[in-house]
Design brief:
The complex is a heterodimer of chains A (about 450) and B (about 280). Chain A is an alpha/beta fold and about 450 residues long. Chain A is built from 20 helices and 11 strands. Chain B has a two-stranded antiparallel ribbon with strand order 1-2. Classes of the chains: A alpha/beta (about 450), B mainly alpha (about 280).
Chain lengths: ~450, ~280
């Protein structure tokens, strides 16, 4: 009697997790979406702004988001390989899309794009970026750029102006050094790939986007003198101590906070850092400033980065549902609501941002910057970030290779030579992401 | 018939250990990016490894790591264990204290050392700098990065050896220790003539296991420095990890993994030889 009761109770308990399968109405089709890591507030934002409204609007679909953490890309790779995985696929960028599309793991989106009107709603450049072999496979979820953050209040006190040319930047950096400030707030303790932000900056500002385009399409080699000059310039800034002495010890947030507290003058970083502005600038009574990174000519260069992309799993059991989710995301209504809560990660490349209205909580500087960026991209005036446009192994080598240059373990020439070899190898193997032609 | 009792564990072993291990060995001779289909390339992966400067750097670092772990924690463990044996009172309390770092999750240990000890901004090193003792953060200096990481792993590891050696020391026959004490042996003589010979097989086992485990060392390096700065703290395991998951070059990663296994295999052969010799005695 006793044993049978325990057995029954055990069976009951064991079947509880299986009960969830019967939890939704029989005609609701599940749509799986694996996300990377997100803070509890951001997870709530996704729940309130995406999952609930989508499920309410689409009674026959059931969207659920699974937060897999920073290991998402590895888990995705294994799942897709075995033919499983989520319906909506979030990848860290176009270079991963190329390999997955090549292996037939992603669904071609051209039909959905035509049917649901994505070709008109998304900026044409980003449609091109998501193409492989002529077919559309991915839509950029967020695009970003690199630039120069600075402390407007500090600049006003010292009568400094935001630099527009490299010469002005270096002069300003020397002045800051003289005053005991760290010219470039930077740190890679918790994110080593931060190294490639600075490489991207010099490649675009010193070598120039035209040369980058030529190298990415194979017209010139990465050992070209234009690139040696760029890397030498970055090594020079390092040797002069512009990056401070704690580059390897500071985390991203700690480094950025230094600008707000006035210990550092400027921060060469990307628009993703806007998420830290509300935390650090107001408490220090400082006003943030952001300009495109200076160049030799004086025109700001907006190096284009795609932070992540959305695709549909080639083996998805519910591709229509997944397409409906993507359709829901790429609207200015969703853009407004999502960016009001969570800046930097959902900067969708919509063609028309005129109807977008962000809440008052958002720093006006962010809205302004995004509008500038959108205009620059639409006009074809953009540069290339290494994490978006380089194939994976080349990009990985770049991160550690530049440390070797900085710490004098290798020369600029050897670094670029190895980069070039790796790039050529991956390009021949079809791993390089699509490079849209310049306007 | 009773051999069927072996079946469940055999199946688990074959599916989870043997088959993936064999697949890794086979993949070392293929070129695979983890996404498309593998292509056979013979020993090209090994040739590429031999030509890769970073591979030799990582191998060298592994040998240094093994040497560090064969000496420092062994010495600390033996010292502490013999102390625990001699000073019986409070031995339980101290055992727990020494063993605690072993049970704390490696991520937490690594982050605590990185942020609260080594950091020149938020850690003890920062406080020391403010009081005029500027010690650089070892994780940021290429010559010291490996030793900085090894220190964290040593802190985490030596307690394990201490507890093992203490358990072994307790098995040394009391009469021998008593006899030595009566004959007026000093601490060093006690160690040399009674205690250490008494636990020789345990020490041998721990040394062989240390060699094998050293070549498998991964977590602390990966969390603290990811093999940097500039590859200075790279180990074969972080090298293989990077090749497999970031460079999308599983073939070379498998080849590096094979190299790790060869070292482990050599140590195992040594151990079996020593064991059989002891068995014959």
């Amino acid at each position: 009697m006793h044993r049978r009761t325990v057995l029954k109770a055990g069976f009951g308990l064991a079947s509880l997790p299986l009960m969830s399968r019967f939890g939704f109405a029989a005609d609701q089709k599940p749509v799986g979406f694996w996300y990377e890591s997100a803070t509890p507030e951001n997870q709530e934002a996704l729940q309130n702004l995406l999952i609930d409204p989508f499920n309410a609007a689409h009674a026959d679909e059931l969207l659920s988001i699974d937060f897999r953490g920073s290991d998402l890309d590895k888990q995705l790779r294994i799942a897709m390989l075995s033919g499983t995985g989520p319906d909506v696929v979030l990848t860290a960028g176009p270079s991963y899309v190329a390999s997955m599309a090549q292996a037939g793991q992603l669904l071609a989106l051209d039909d959905y794009a035509k049917k649901l009107g994505w070709n008109e709603r998304v900026l044409p450049l980003f449609l091109d970026l998501g193409r492989y072999d002529g077919k559309l496979y991915a839509l950029a979820k967020t695009y970003e750029t690199l630039g120069l953050f600075y402390n407007k209040t500090l600049f006003a006190t010292n009568n400094w102006n935001a630099p527009t040319t490299i010469a002005e930047l270096e002069a300003l950096a020397e002045e800051m050094k003289g005053k005991g400030l760290v010219p470039f707030a930077a740190g890679n303790a918790d994110w080593r790939p931060a190294n490639e932000w600075f490489v991207s900056i010099v490649l675009n500002s010193v070598a120039g986007p035209e040369n980058l385009y030529k190298a990415l399409t194979g017209a010139i080699a990465w050992t070209d003198p234009a690139f040696s000059a760029a890397i030498d310039k970055l090594a020079e800034w390092w040797d002069k101590g512009y990056f401070g002495e704690n580059y390897f010890s500071l985390t991203l947030e700690q480094a950025f906070a230094q600008v707000a507290t006035g210990q550092a003058g400027m921060a060469p970083t990307g628009t993703w850092s806007f998420t830290n502005v509300p935390t650090y600038f107001p408490p220090n009574n400082a006003e943030p400033g952001f300009v495109g990174f200076p160049s030799t000519s004086g025109d700001p260069i907006f190096a284009l980065g795609v932070g992540s992309t959305l695709s549909i799993n080639g083996k998805s059991g519910n591709p229509d549902g997944a397409a409906a989710v993507l359709d829901y995301i790429f609207t200015d209504d969703f853009y407004s609501k999502m960016n009001s809560e969570w800046q930097g990660e959902w900067n969708l490349p919509l063609t028309d941002l005129s109807k977008v209205k962000l809440s008052d909580k958002v720093v006006p500087l962010y809205t302004e910057t995004m509008k500038h960026l959108s205009a620059a991209v639409a006009a074809g005036k953009y540069g290339y970030t290494t994490w978006t446009f380089l194939p994976p192994a080349t990009d990985t080598y770049l991160v550690s290779g530049i440390e070797e240059v900085w710490l004098k373990k290798t020369s600029t020439a050897d670094f670029l030579k190895k980069l070039d070899e790796s790039f050529k190898q991956e390009r021949d193997a079809g791993k390089a992401p699509a490079i849209p032609s310049r306007a | 018939m009773y051999r069927l009792y072996l079946l469940p564990t055999m199946i688990i072993n074959i599916v989870i250990i043997l088959i993936p291990a064999l697949l890794t060995v086979i993949l070392a001779f293929y070129n695979w990016d983890g996404i498309s289909t593998p292509t056979f390339v013979g020993i090209d992966n090994f040739r590429a490894l031999a030509a890769d400067r970073v591979f030799w750097l990582a191998l060298g670092n592994n040998l240094v790591w093994t040497l560090i772990f064969l000496t420092v924690p062994m010495f600390m463990g033996l010292l502490a264990a013999s102390m625990l044996l001699i000073v019986r009172r409070g031995s339980n309390f101290f055992q727990i204290v020494y063993f605690l770092p072993v049970v704390i999750a490696t991520v937490i240990t690594a982050r605590v050392w990185q942020g609260m000890i080594y950091s020149p901004v938020t850690g003890i090193f920062g406080i020391l700098k403010r009081y005029g003792l500027p010690i650089p953060n070892p994780l940021t200096q290429p010559p010291m990065a490996l030793f900085g990481v090894a220190t964290v792993d040593l802190w985490h590891w030596w307690g394990f050896l201490c507890v093992i050696f203490f358990a072994a020391l307790r098995q040394v026959p009391q009469e021998q220790i008593e006899a030595a004490r009566i004959e007026g042996a000093t601490y060093l003589q006690m160690m040399r003539y009674v205690l250490l010979p008494g636990i020789r097989s345990t020490i041998t086992l721990m040394m062989i296991m240390t060699v094998i485990w050293s070549f498998l060392a991964f977590d602390f390096v990966y969390i603290l420095t990811q093999g940097g700065p500039a590859f200075s703290s790279d180990l074969l395991s972080t090298f293989a990890y990077r090749k497999a998951f970031y460079d999308l070059n599983v073939g070379q990663a498998a080849a590096a993994a094979l190299v790790i296994s060869v070292f482990g295999l050599v140590s195992t052969v040594f151990y079996v030889r020593i064991q059989s010799k002891e068995g014959e005695q």
